[in-house]
Design brief:
Elements lengths: L2 H4 L6 E6 L4 H5 L7 E5 L13 E6 L2 H7 L5 E8 L4 E10 L15 E6 L2 E7 L8 E5 L5 E6 L2 E2 L4 E2 L11 E6 L12 E6 L3 H6 L4 E5 L6 H18 L2 H8 L1
Antiparallel strand pairs: 1-2, 1-14, 2-3, 3-4, 4-5, 5-6, 6-7, 7-8, 8-9, 9-12, 10-11, 12-13, 13-14
């Protein structure tokens, strides 16, 4: 395992902050390449000098214009900052998926994680109807975590108040496989934070707080970080929002 990946072992949480790159381009209907800054936690994100990782998507203009959040792309995470990138921490590869996924079983949305030449694992979206969920798989293809939004009404609906009222937080809870997803059973969480009216309504820039399971290894933390990027493109880019409204 490469040393840069080991840096995740020392962090119990992360703040992943998407930049407002390409605002004008997005207003004209074409997604810009995603770019993220990673900080140790929410408090330290107030000072850009505390940034520990930088990530950027690589995809073609035509793919972003025509395929929106179904597009194929690769994405890399480096230690350091945009202007002083260090070693590669991990890389992601997301293939194109059918717009009808995950309602169809023949085209499962998935993303693969790598550390150099070593396979780290993947995340995929099982077929769901009401409550968005993802499966996180380890390097051997075994299910390591189930990530889904908290529920109410016997598991039939998303619990919009799980993180409190009137704070606009959107949580995805992390569960061990085989555990019934319910309040108090989660071992970690990925929470989309509110960034203000201007950012939320006029850009796709999102911020996520990732709280890791206490016993998570560096590889597990990398997979959950990659899953956070996957959640962003699946559920919080304009293409996803437009489909959810239709």
């Amino acid at each position: 395992m490469a040393a840069p990946l080991e840096m995740l072992r020392d962090h119990s949480e992360l703040l992943i902050k998407q930049t407002r790159k390409g605002c004008c381009q997005e207003c004209m209907g074409c997604e810009a390449t995603n770019e993220f800054l990673v900080f140790p936690n929410v408090q330290k994100a107030k000072d850009s000098g505390n940034q520990i990782m930088y990530s950027k998507e690589s995809s073609s203009f035509c793919c972003r214009l025509c395929c929106l959040n179904q597009r194929s792309f690769t994405q890399t995470v480096w230690s350091g900052t945009k202007d002083a990138k260090g070693s590669e921490v991990m890389a992601m590869d997301r293939p194109f998926t059918c717009p009808l996924a995950p309602l169809t079983c023949c085209c499962v949305p998935t993303i693969a994680f790598k550390n150099g030449d070593a396979v780290l694992g993947s995340a995929q979206v099982p077929c769901f109807l009401c409550v968005p969920a993802l499966d996180v798989l380890d390097a051997s293809g075994q299910k390591e975590f189930q990530v889904q939004q908290p529920t109410c009404c016997g598991g039939c609906c998303v619990n919009c108040w799980a993180e409190g009222c009137c704070n606009c937080k959107i949580p995805f809870y992390v569960y061990k496989p085989g555990v019934t997803p319910s309040s108090g059973n989660q071992v970690g969480k990925i929470v989309k934070l509110w960034r203000g009216i201007g950012t939320e309504f006029f850009t796709d820039a999102a911020s996520f707080r990732v709280e890791y399971p206490p016993d998570a290894s560096a590889e597990s933390k990398a997979r959950l970080m990659g899953t956070t990027f996957f959640i962003n493109i699946l559920f919080f880019e304009k293409g996803a929002n437009e489909e959810n409204k239709s």
